[in-house]
Amino acid sequence: MAAPTGRSGGRAWAALLPAALLCLATRAAAEPGTAPGAAPSTAEFDVRPGGEVHSFSRSLGDYGCTFTYSAQGGTNEQWQMNVGVSEDNGLFSCSIWRPQGKSYLFFTQFKAEVKGAKIEYAMAYSQAAVGAQSDIPLKQEEFEITETTVSHREGKFRFELSKLVIVAKTPRDEL
Question: Residue 17 domain-assigned?
Fold first, then answer.
């Protein structure tokens, strides 16, 4: 598990994450366009090899997520990005993954950045769950988490990425 600099208990997030993501995804799918200027909750995009830096972004109201990467080898792969906001507007989620499970590209760098919220939980995976296979997380030393980004760790990242999951806390206006 990866939780940024002790701000949250990793075990608590491990128990709450599946339920929180399911709620966010269900709400986003059931109520598309609930936030002003909201884009579709799930969007497909191509991850392109060739060594150039590419970005893909989605936003939902005041919150956004941008995935920036560079990859080598193979051909384009279809990936998806899902963004969602909890019913109480307290959490923003961003998930980026390859639906087929494992990517065959070699990622030379990656960074996922959230706008309008601070990361409470994030995890990166070398393989995404598909069929009977399970998610395989990257080792903790392969990536780093700040308040707003999840990115590869230079010299430690082993070039495999198939999924990123971020749950961020949105600012609250107190009355």
Answer: no
**Global pTM?**
0.80
> What total number of domains does the chain contain?
1
Here the tokens at position 71 are 């990859």
Which helix (H) or strand (E) segment is 59 a member of? strand 53-60
Sign of CA dihedral 110, 11, 30, 92: negative
Q: In what order do the strands lie in the sheet with 143-145?
A: 53-60, 63-72, 106-115, 149-152, 143-145
User: Is residue 25 in a domain?
Assistant: no
- The answer as to whether 32 is a domain residue is no
Does residue 131 form part of some domain? yes
Mean pLDDT confidence for 70-98: 95
- Mean pLDDT value across residues 69-85: 96
136's CB contacts (< 8 A; 6+ apart) are 125, 126, 127
The parent domain of residue 125 ranges over: 41-169
Cα distance between residue 119 and residue 100, in whole Å:
26
List % helix, strand, coil for the chain (3-state, nearest 5).
15, 45, 40
